[in-house]
Amino acid sequence: MNFLSFYYTHKPGGFCKRLYRLLGALADKGHTVTYLCLDPPPEHFPSNVDIQVLPFPVKRRRGALFWGIFFLLIPLLLIPQVLRNRPDRYVLFSPVYSALFLLARLVHSRPLILFFRSLPFRINRITKQPAWVLFFSDLIDRLGVTNATTIVCMTKAMKSELEAFLGKRLPSTHILPNEVTIQNLTRAPRSTPPFTFLTSGVLDHRKNISFLLQALEDIDPLSYSLLIAGDGPLRASLEMDTKQKGLQNITFLGWQTNLSQLYSQVDLVIHPALHEGVPNSVLEPLGHGLGVLCSDIPELSELIKHKDLLFSLDDTQTLTNQLSLFTSNNDVRKKILLASQEVAQRLAFDWDTRATDICLSQAA
After folding, report:
1. What is the pLDDT of residue 257?
2. What pLDDT was estimated at residue 363?
3. Phi, psi of 340 (to 5 degrees)
4. How far apart are CA 298 and CA 318, in angstroms?
5. Torsion (CA) 79, 80, 81, 84 in degrees, nearest 10
6. Which of 45, 84, 357, 362 has an alpha carbon within 20 to 30 A of 230's alpha carbon?
7. pLDDT at position 362, please?
């Protein structure tokens, strides 16, 4: 079978990592896979996937000029690519890209499998985008869903929220979370402070790092240190916030390509996000036997299913209390660690096989 996919350029993080994995898994099964992009992907891109770089007149990959030309030109550039490759199926990882294939699918109508990694309409509202951005983004999301024949959501909560946004039931739908890759579940909790906390991800409003910083204000500074791995638009203001709060035992590490090298020194991962798909920044440490605490939002509560590993976002005191107990009570540390390891075992499965089966299924 012949598959075609498209994403504009490589970005660090779970989105591209998961997309590349799926394309490589399909190629490993003997299928022809073509990847369209504006820039050559990184060296770790699957070698058995055919890369076709589209000519594009604007070199800078951000800003109003780039995106304006992108949305006008890309639908036209896709048509000759589709006619040349004659794919049996389209595999895309965002409703934006599904919408871009509207014209191409009129020319060469084949099933389109759309994987949702997060909900753009939720993110845009969390990050307080202007009304005109919300209007056009929502329109594109609706067009993208309409153009898809199969929708793959990461959780049931994501599917329900997407249906509420659309005001209708989705067509053929699959639920496929990210998986935990088990590396080591034999860790035991350390018994003496200071304990090292870790949070990671793009530093924007969605990740809600300011909530964590506020919760740490009432924690004994001698009992912990916090590592913040990641970069993004809020990094400078978050660094300023830590100074104003007098939180001196917090280190901003910048973007880390390999977080696993930090896990041996980490005692607890904290993820205070306002909205998520199924974050690798939680799943990866779970696979290394680390304890996690996550915000009690629908997507994460469905994934974690353990009240001792969740904290409310209604106020910071709940998280403050949980972290105080973690740093002062060995039984609490053991309980969080064991519960996290149980979650890791439950979420260990072969994601590549499930994802490729969906792409090959008759429902697509």
Report:
1. 82
2. 59
3. -65, -40
4. 17
5. 130
6. 45
7. 63
Q: What pLDDT is stored for residue 24 in this prediction?
A: 98
Q: Dihedral sign for Cα 89, 93, 95, 101, please.
A: negative
Taking a C-beta distance cutoff of 8 angstroms, is the pair 283, 303 a contact? no
- Three-state SS string across the chain, please? CEEEEECCCCCCCHHHHHHHHHHHHHHHCCCEEEEEECCCCCCCCCCCCEEEECCCCCCCCCCHHHHHHHHHHHHHHHHHHHHHHCCCEEEECCHHHHHHCHHHHHHCCCCEEEECCCCHHHHHHHCCCCHHHHHHHHHHHHHHHHHCCEEEECCHHHHHHHHHHHCCCCCCEEECCCCCCCCCCCCCCCCCCCEEEEEECCCCHHHCHHHHHHHHCCCCHHHEEEEEECCCCCHHHHHHHHHHCCCCCEEEEECCCCHHHHHHHCCEEEECCCCCCCCHHHHHHHHCCCEEEEECCHHHHHHHCCHHHEECCCCCHHHHHHHHHHHHCHHHHHHHHHHHHHHHHHCCCCHHHHHHHHHHCCCC
Report residues of the chain scoring pLDDT below 70. 362-364
pLDDT tens profile 100-149: 999 999 999 999 999 999 899 999 998 889 999 999 999 999 999 999 99
Instruction: Specify the pLDDT at position 171.
Output: 76
- Please give the domain boundaries of the chain with CATH numbers for all domains: 2-178+350-360 (3.40.50.2000), 195-346 (3.40.50.2000)
Q: How far apart are CA 159 and CA 177, in angstroms?
A: 12
Pull the structure tokens for residue 118: 């997060």
Residue 14: its pLDDT value, please?
84
Q: What does the block give as tokens for 108?
A: 């060469």
What's the pLDDT score for residue 94?
94
